[in-house]
Amino acid sequence: MKELKELTRANIWNLAPYSCARNEYNGRNASVFLDANENPYNAPYNRYPDPLQLEVKKLLAKVKRVPEECIFLGNGSDEAIDLMYRCFTEPRIDNVVAIDPTYGMYKVCADINDVEYRSVSLDTDGFSLNADRLLSACDRNTKVIWLCSPNNPTANALDHEEMVKILTHFEGIVVVDEAYSDFSSQPLFRHELAKYSNIVVLNTMSKAWACAGIRMGMAFASKEIIDLMNKVKYPYNINVLAQREALDILKDPYEIDKWVRTILLERSRVIDAIKLLPLCRKVYPTDANFILVEVDDAQKTYDYLVSKGIIVRNRNKVHLCQDCLRITIGTKTENQELLAALRTM
C-alpha cells in the first residue's frame, strides 16, 4: 500500500477539523454545562450527543472484536461510503473500481463527488469474482476498490482468496462491505485489520441487528484511516436516540443470534418452496438474508405481488439479473403469504 498521506486528498490531510464543545470537554465530573449554547430545559434531549459515540464503541468493540480506535460510526453505512470519496478521491482526476452488479450507493456517491466509476462485471457463472480482471481495470489514479461480500443483489459471498489477491496487489484503499456477513459462514475481514493496512470494512445495524430505523452504520479500519474519517464527518452525526437504542440492543447479542438462526431456517424453507413453483427458473445460492430468484417474467410477477400487498425488489434491469426478483426473508407468516400468492399466480 502507498503511504496514507499519498492516498489522501491534500486538503483533507491538512484539514483542521471543526472543534465542537463536546470535543473540547468530554469529562464526567461537570454538572453545569454552559459551553455549547444549548437550551437548559427538556433534558436529556437538550444536550448534544457524544460526537465520537465512545460508549457505543466500547460495547461494539467487545461484540465485533475490533479495537475501539478502529471503529467509525456513521449515519448509515452510506455516510462511510461517501467519506471514502471525500477523503481519498480528487474529483475529475481520480477513479474507483467496483464489481458489477453490486450495491448502488457506491456509484451514486461517485457521481455526487464527480469521480469516475469503473464497473467490472462478475462472471456470468454464479456471479464469481475475478481478481485479475478487477485489477486490470485500475490505473495510477484508482484510489478505491469496492467489494461487497455477501454481495447485493446477487446474495453470494465473494471468493475469499480472490479478495485477498486484490488486497495484496492493490496499492490504494479496498472497501469490503460486510453488511450481510452475519448470515454467512465466510471468514470476516474485520478480524484482519492488522494484516491489511489498506482495508476498510463496512458493517451495519440494519440487517442482523434489526435496527434499520436508527440509521447506524460502521466502518472498521486502521486508527489512521478512522482518524481521517472523523476529521471530515459532521460533528454530531449520530443522535442521542440512535446511540441509546444501539447501546440497548448491543447488550443482548444472543437475541440477535437467535434471530439470525431463525432467518436462516426460513431461508432454506422458502428456497425449497420457490424451486417447486412453475414460474421459477432458478434460485441463486445465497449467503445473505435475501434470495435472488430468476422467474419467467419479473415485471409481471412483481406487479402481481404488489396487487396482493406484497413488496419485493424487481432487479430485472440490473446487469446480469434479467428477470430476477430480490426477495427478503421475513417472518414465517410473511414468507407464507408470499408463497401462497406465488402458488396462485
Brief summary:
The chain is α/β, with parallel strands linked by helices. It is built from 13 helices and eleven strands.
Protein model, in words:
- 36% of the residues lie in helices and 17% in strands.
- It is of the alpha/beta class.
- A 7-stranded mixed β-sheet has the order 1-7-6-5-4-2-3, with helices on both faces. Strands 8-9-11-10 form a 4-stranded antiparallel β-sheet, covered by helices on one side.
- A hairpin with a 6-residue loop joins β8 and β9 (290-295).
- α4 (54-64) packs parallel to α10.
- The model has no long low-confidence stretch (mean pLDDT 96).
Which features characterize this protein?
single chain, 345 residues, alpha/beta, seven-stranded mixed β-sheet, four-stranded antiparallel β-sheet, 11 strands, 17% strand
Query: Order of strands across the widest beta sheet?
Result: 1-7-6-5-4-2-3
Going by helix content, strand content and strand pairing, the class is alpha/beta
Number of helices: 13
Look at the structure and give the mean pLDDT: 96
Beginning-to-end CA distance, first to last residue: 54 Å
N-to-C series of helices and strands: HHHHEHEHEHEHEEEHHHEEHEEH
Beta strand %: 15-25%
Radius of gyration: 22 Å
Q: Spans of 5+ residues with little confidence (pLDDT < 50)?
A: none
The tally of strands reads 11
Shape, principal axes of CA atoms: globular
- The helix content is 25-40%
Biggest pleated sheet:
7 strands, mixed
